[in-house]
Design goal:
The chain is an all-beta fold. Helices cover 0% and strands 62% of the residues. The chain is built from no helices and 10 strands. The strands form 3 sheets. Strands 2-1-5-6 form a 4-stranded antiparallel beta sheet, with no helix packed on it. A hairpin with a 5-residue loop joins strand 5 and strand 6.
Length: 104
Amino acid sequence: MYAIVQAGGHQHRVTPGGFATIDGVLADKGAEITLDQVLLVERDGGEVVAGAPFVANARVIAVVEGEARGPKIRVFKKKRRKGMRRTKGHRSVFTRVKIKDIVL
């Protein structure tokens, strides 16, 4: 059984007992969260339930494992022949969640 959920501006394929890395800070460590924007659910028998856009009454229950930061991203801008060079960068914050159950 697996589901495709929309969280943090991205779509993630999740399975019970698996992990997902979601952009942004959702909750404190150990908190239980519910992801209710479920796009698709595939049951063990091979039956696929697709939503339009979301599957009605479907949700994914997850527990927050903690936060992490992604790799450093360098943004370099340059205009040729002008002497203009600018370097900026950032590190995104991710939340790691453990999937407990998919409820349909």
